[in-house]
Amino acid sequence: MVGLRQPGRAHRGLRRQAGRAAPGIHGPALRIMGTTLSGRLVRRRAQARASSRRTARSRCLQRRWRAPGRRGATPLDVGSDMRSAPRVGARVTGGPAGEGSNLGLYWGDDAYAIERAIDALAQRVGSAAGGPPERWRVGGDATSASLIGERLATATMFGGGSLAIVSEPWPLLRSKAGREELAGVLGNVAPGNALALTATFDRSAKAPAALDALRELVRGAGGEAREFKAPKGGAMTRWIEDRAAERSIRLEPGAARELATRIGAMVAEGDVDRRRQGMVAVGELDKLALYRGGQPVTQDDVRALVAEAVPGSAWALLDAVGERRAAEANELLARLMTNTPEPVLLAQLHRRVRTLIEVADELAAGKTAGSLVRTLHLKPFQADKLAGHARRWTFAELRAALDGLLDLDGLVKGVGGAAGTEAQRRLAFSLWVSERVSARSGLPRSPVRAPA
């Protein structure tokens, strides 16, 4: 009720229910009203009509606050109740964390599985809202928590809402204020809207430091947090067969394995980038199905249509060099040189040859492979492997290999005007492998003692 006075026709019992005047937001005074009218007010109405002793002063609202009657309802505490009431659009989730939530964090090295998780989130939110949400994709370095909140804090009245897909959201968590602002956004996603935070990174690389903090924020807001690992080897073969069955594509025996091999899934080393292998496999399946026109896909079809994209592995290259398998080392080196800077390859090769010289020196002094764990600070499996590699070399061969790497370094850096073309540098790397890594015999050799 606004104002200090009410018309004379206003119910007097109702006026008694009103409290004293309080300062208003825009100037006029406000009265705190009770939530319900008690039965006593009905009886007071008849008494008020029969009474002739009411003065004109009683027609005004009481200037002195009067508490409601004992039987009356408790007045509404505007100051406290409104602050503690749930915000508009706040999500209320029940059951296990993330179940039925409109908030998700998906990370790992399987981009295909992450996209499937986003599709499932969109379907779940769209079925509840009555329409598919509109997808908005943005990188974490191109947005802010406030912009995300503007899109998701308000529910739509008709149709589907909005699904914000934020990839690599790490810039949003760089500061404490940023984390607090993002936490407020996560807790205020309106019904019909959804937020998906995604991160894809190589499994061999260390996970971002902010991942644990982001996972706790999402789970604390009732969302789901899931990691997806790309399959490899035989697991990828079965994965391809499952995706083909989903698409009603018939594969003859050996076709799935051939496809897994040609996309590089059979490489066992852990430093291989597998983030796009699932998407590549699904795209090749669709292409093969279109080519065959409903007929079973054969192994020859895969060889004819799928380009070989076996990724290079620096770990596999270093192992091939250590075991003196020159042909395999040259093949791996050619793959790595397509996307790895030459100085990086030189640094890795130099480090491995130098480590083999140190291991060979320890073995020549009568040390065992187990003692390398303490003296060279290696892990047990690394010590055993490097000891086996060092036994295949002599000190003279290791020194010649190291000298050859120094010559390659000068060629790459153009020392003394010796810079060559890319083809010449590739040829120089290949010659180093053929001349310095290739073993004269397949039998392991014992290294000789270093001269004094």
Offer a concise description of the structure.
This protein has 452 residues and is of the alpha/beta class. It has helices at 12-17, 39-50, 78-84, 111-129, 145-152, 176-186, 211-220, 234-246, 255-262, 277-292, 299-305, 314-322, 326-336, 342-364, 372-375, 380-390, 395-413, 422-437; strands at residues 21-22, 30-31, 103-108, 134-139, 162-167, 194-200, 224-228.
Helices and strands, with pairings:
Elements: H1 12-17, E1 21-22, E2 30-31, H2 39-50, H3 78-84, E3 103-108, H4 111-129, E4 134-139, H5 145-152, E5 162-167, H6 176-186, E6 194-200, H7 211-220, E7 224-228, H8 234-246, H9 255-262, H10 277-292, H11 299-305, H12 314-322, H13 326-336, H14 342-364, H15 372-375, H16 380-390, H17 395-413, H18 422-437
Parallel strand pairs: 3-6, 3-7, 4-5, 5-6
Antiparallel strand pairs: 1-2
